[in-house]
Write a structure and sequence with these properties.
The chain has 150 residues and is α+β, with helices and mostly antiparallel strands. The chain is built from three helices and seven strands; from the N terminus they run E-E-H-E-E-H-E-H-E-E. The strands form two sheets. The chain has a five-stranded mixed β-sheet, sandwiched between helices.
């Protein structure tokens, strides 16, 4: 699992729950999450669609990030069970979903809207808040939360 510290650096940390809260980055707005996600897609994976989950504690401090699905050039399959397995193992109180559109277009598809709704409904049952779903495109993003769609 990846951890983003308050210094903005990404580190692989299998023991993510042992990191002091003071060293974790706080997510206050969608732009904060987007900045983390842009770093993840700078590794050359922009040509395929990938879906990940940012894990947060009650204070919106970042516990970590995990990829949950990688697909092809036009889509990926997301299993809500994997999303929430990841969240529950990290003891996350909230999550922010993210995926990229290799085309650069950040407008959500019908499938994007449906999976967001499905994951949000699952989160209500498990008491894990789905705080946002961000679609990353060419130097821009779409936030379901900012657009009032969550």
């Amino acid at each position: 699992m990846y951890l983003y510290g308050s210094d903005g650096k990404c580190r692989w940390r299998p023991d993510v729950n042992r990191i002091p809260a003071s060293e974790r980055k706080t997510i206050r707005r969608s732009q904060d999450a987007y900045e983390i996600f842009r770093l993840l897609w700078q590794d050359g994976t922009d040509h395929v669609e990938s879906f990940g989950v940012l894990l947060l504690n009650r204070a919106n401090k970042c516990l970590g990030f995990k990829w949950v699905s990688k697909g092809g050039t036009s889509g990926t399959v997301v299993d809500p069970k994997i999303v929430f397995q990841t969240a529950l193992l990290a003891h996350a109180s909230g999550i922010i979903l993210c995926h990229n559109h290799p085309s650069g277009n950040t407008i959500p598809s019908d499938a994007d809207t449906k999976i967001t709704r499905k994951i949000k409904d699952c989160g209500l049952l498990l008491d894990v808040a789905v705080l946002d779903h961000i679609i990353v495109g060419d130097d821009r993003f779409y936030s379901f939360s900012d657009e009032g769609c969550l």
